[in-house]
């Protein structure tokens, strides 16, 4: 099998490496162009590009597929199949028509639930007990292709987008390797998605992370987990952004008022609590703007006036 791999973020790296380790013939790796990052705005290669170069694989970085020459270059590689994992571009039909066995993709949700750009945070925000990976045949409509295989896992109470994404990336890698072998043999039966059950999730804006303490504690707890590591969840304390990194809803606690910081007894699973629209949210780890990550207890030792404050406080 001549395989072209298309992917960009760290989520896609295990899938690429699984194909390499199983001796698939990777004729090219397509990934996004290098993007400026850091204070110096130095162009940085995507995680997939870094992995591809480490394996000695040829890398192609088109801005898009609007130029016919880009599609012609792809066609010259004569791929049998294209494997797509979080590439970041919608492939035109001219690309989908190139490989003999089409394009397949792994999407980290139980399609048709959560088509779109942020399925892992969406599942956590919704309070879903389960999520998973769907391997699909790629079509023009985003994440709408027939399902070739699905795997389901539970979402643990301590899971955030980073930890859950790591689990799903490993599952996706194994499923795609299997699909690359079985699908061309006709040993996987495509199943159409039920359009009546479709839900969507869009890109998360950078501003999404500000905490509304009027929301219930359970909803804020889910937000903190869903938005870790990006865009992050935060409030304000004395004009500085205070990132809330790890929390726990406190069962049976009576809310003292939305945003009010309260002390907790030693038997509680957090070092201080914040009142919400329904219940108390225990705070475990924080990061004050310009400071390192620290436990809530350590933060309190340096901010003795914090107990009794009402958040956000500018």
Summarize the structure in words.
The chain is of the alpha/beta class and about 325 residues long. The protein has 2 domains: about 200 residues, 3-Layer(aba) Sandwich (Rossmann fold), CATH 3.40.50.170; about 100 residues, Methionyl-tRNA Fmet Formyltransferase, Chain A, domain 2 (Roll). Helices cover about 25% and strands about 25% of the residues. Strands 5-2-1-6-7-9-10 form a 7-stranded mixed sheet. Strands 12, 13, 14, 15, 16 and 17 form a 6-stranded antiparallel sheet that branches. The protein has a two-stranded antiparallel sheet with strand order 3-4. Helix 5 runs antiparallel to helix 7.
Question: How would you sum up this structure in a few lines?
Answer:
By secondary structure, this protein is α/β, with parallel strands linked by helices. Helix content is 24%, strand content 26%.
How do the strands and helices of this protein lay out in sequence?
Layout: E1 2-7, H1 13-21, E2 25-30, E3 35-37, E4 42-44, H2 47-54, E5 59-60, H3 68-76, E6 81-85, H4 93-96, E7 103-107, E8 115-116, H5 119-125, E9 130-137, E10 147-154, H6 161-182, E11 200-201, H7 217-226, E12 234-237, E13 240-250, E14 261-263, E15 272-275, E16 280-288, E17 294-295, H8 296-302
Parallel strand pairs: 1-2, 1-6, 2-5, 6-7, 8-11
Antiparallel strand pairs: 3-4, 7-9, 9-10, 12-13, 13-16, 14-15, 15-16, 16-17
